[in-house]
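This is your field. Please look over both lines of this record.
***
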Amino acid sequence: MLFVIYIIDKLFLAYTIMLFIRILGSWIPELQSSRFMQFVSFYTDPYLNLFRRFIPPLGMIDFSPVIAFIALGVLEQVVKTILLNFVR
C-alpha cells in the first residue's frame, strides 16, 4: 500500500509541475502554439477553469492558479491521509 501512496505522490507532483509550466507558459505567447504547451493546456485548463469561474482576474493578474495550487495540495493531503488510515 505504501507503493500506491508513493505513486499517488508522484502523480500529484507531476500535475503540480504541469500547472506551473502552464502558468509560466501563459506569459510567453510564442509557446502557446507549441505541441507541448497544447498538451499541458489540455490537461490543466479544465482544472484551472474551475477556479476561474469563481475568482475573476484583477486587472491583468489572475489569482485563480494560487487557489488551484492550494486546493491541489489540500486534496493530496486528504487522499494520502485516507489511504494511510486505510492501511492501519
